[in-house]
Amino acid sequence: MPRVRLSRYNPVYIEQVLRTVPARFPFPPSEDRRRWGEVAESVGKEEVERILAEAEEVASEPIPPLPATLFLDFKRTGRREGYERPRGRRRNNLAIMVLAECLEFRGRFLDPILDLAWAICEESSWALPAHQVELAEVDRPVVDLGAAMTALELAEMDYLLGERLEPSLRRRIRYEVERRCIVPYLSRHDFWWLHNTESRTVNNWNAVCNGGVAGAAVYLEEDASRLAEVLAKALRSLEDYMETFDEDGGSSEGPGYWAYGFGYYAVLADLVETRTNGRVNLLEGDFVREVAKFPLKVVLSPGAFVNFSDCDRNFNPPAPLLAYLSSRLDVPELVALSGPMDYRGGLTWRLRSLFWRSDCPPPPFVPSHHDFFRGLQWMLARYDPSDPDALVLAAKGGHNAEMHNQNDVGSFIVHFRGESLIADPGRGRYTRDYFGPKRYEHFVNSSRGHSVPVPNGCEQRTGREAAAELLDQGADGLTDRMVLELKAAYPPEADLASLRRTLALHREGPAGWVEVTDEVRFSSGPGTLESPLITFGSAEVKKDTVIIRGKKGALKVSWEGAFDLRVERIKGVDLAEGPTDLERIVFRRGPTSEGRIRLKIEPTST
Fold first, then answer.
1. What does the alpha-carbon distance between residue 52 and residue 58 come to, in Å, rounded to a whole number?
2. What pLDDT shows up at residue 137?
3. What is the 3-state secondary structure (H, E, C) of 418-479?
4. Distances from the Cα of 348 to the Cαs of 91, 92, 351, in angstroms?
5. Does a cis peptide bond (omega within 30 degrees of 0) precede residue 591?
6. What is the DSSP code (8-state) at residue 66?
7. Alpha helix locations (H) across 105-187?
8. What is the pLDDT of residue 200?
């Protein structure tokens, strides 16, 4: 049985509900000056003035052009930024002007809004070039993340400004959303994100695309029978999405894509719950609360989170999402993860930045000493959770066909004084090759870009069968540990009979220490074993230790036995934030038929 049973809401039931309850929406239209006045007061004069000033600035800007040759830049060069940046600028500018008009209600932004919204309707495709590649076939639109989000943004703009918009624009929005999204959604069966099968992977796309298309329909579709059909289809598909989380609410995509996918799940949940007067509820049950609590369990230190898979190193959970989930699901500690309100992005999240807020100070939040995600095989061990500078170990098993997979079975992070000194590189720059056949040639996606063993010079292979076997896991107050058999993650030429990795946080000593032990047995003869450490800091090799220095702290690495040791400087790693240098510290043993590399990693002041 699925963990969240959304398919029980069939179209017959949904239509009955829609016909018996008045149509309501979560936010007030701009004509409701009392509500918008309250919003302005709660946001504060300074923020309102900032929004108005930004809107004044963008209203005078020319609309960023999106010529066909720019759309083809991805096909021709593999680059995404050339088209995506001006496209995103269009939507960001529209969002800030819509909010400014709702707050001010003087009409001075209506013409710039008309010009920009009309230009978006004129775009031949709302899909991103990375998802469509060729120029648009107007009779067969692609429904992707970009198209779904655009549909919802235009639908919310139409609702907020209503009859103050040019009637022709309102008709055009309905025509374009219908043609580009609703009709394909109901009539076609070629969207991988909409129909889960054993051969197709569901991930954040499922939530974002369903949330965008169905959310737009909530606003625009007046036929109760047809809206019920859209919602029933979306809920069945979102049931599949919720199955991507493990039994403890963890997502192998990491907290960044949790925020993206589950964020749009929450957006649609709020729209549907309001529209049906609570009779269709996507957020009921203990499992949904566990999914909502995922970022609480992957905190490394205040403002820092585990970044396995394609997750940015500098990820910050969106404040409006945290505020909404905190209130709606009674998880008040979520608000403690919030940073400053961020008004960047399209209308969907800018609007919710005004309404999904917490006016009460968050309760103190101290993470657990130990968190473990059974399905993911992720372990978080914190020496002293009440101390933001204390030692933290994050480690993973898993397999190499995960969502946004990187070949990183057995990888780990060591975090101290608020920084990951032994790090996961995180998300690389998205290009055509990054998601193509050459994906695992990219340093950050290959096992070479992670702190994982290298037997006989072999990197990890890709696929569901390239998986860790969990041999032991637990915490007894003195030691948090996880023991993994990694043999299956490597190709036959690694010649492995066994490759066992132990990852542990030991609590003795003034600040604790991390153990990493790799034990190898080769099948047919002597082989070599390397145990590398990845760092964005600098490595200083001394006689019997290596000191890893970061911006705020340092770790001392010591070992048992005699090994070859080298430090590789990897220059210009193509990360999401730009080319970045890192170091790879490699401990090497062999040739040997069986052997062990045991590292002790501890905080140091030297």
1. 10
2. 87
3. CEEEECCCCCECCCCHHHCCCHHHCCCCCHHHCCCCEECCCCCCCEEEEECEEEEEEECCCE
4. 10, 10, 6
5. yes
6. -
7. 110-122, 129-132, 145-161, 167-177, 183-187
8. 58
Residue with tokens 């006045």: 37
State both tokens at 273.
């719950």
The model carries a pTM of 0.97
DSSP H or E segment with residue 351? helix 347-355
Whether 153 contacts 204, CB under 8 Å:
no
Q: Which residues pair with 559 in a beta bridge?
A: 599
Burial class from Cβ neighbours inside 10 Å (0-12, 13-18, 19+) for residue 548 reads buried
DSSP run (H or E) holding 97: helix 81-104
Residues in the chain with pLDDT < 50?
A: 199
Residue recorded with tokens 């394909």: 184
Copy the structure tokens of residue 502. Answer: 């132990």
Residue 338 confidence (pLDDT): 84
Closest to 590 (Cα-Cα) out of 520, 517, 528: 528
Express the helix, strand and coil content of the chain in percent, nearest 5 each.
40, 20, 40
Region for residue 403 given its phi and psi (left: phi exceeds 0; alpha: psi -120 to 50; beta: otherwise): beta
| Integer CA distances (angstroms), 79 to 244, 270, 435, in order | 30, 36, 12
Tokens of 250: 């963890």
Please report, to the nearest 10 degrees, the dihedral formed by the alpha carbons of residues 137, 141, 142, 148 taken in order.
140
Q: DSSP state, 136?
A: P
3-state secondary structure 272-314: HHHHCCCCCCCCCCHHHHHHHCHHHHCEEECCEECCCCCCCCC
Cα angle 603-571-499, degrees, rounded to a multiple of 5: 60
The SS3 call for residue 392 is strand
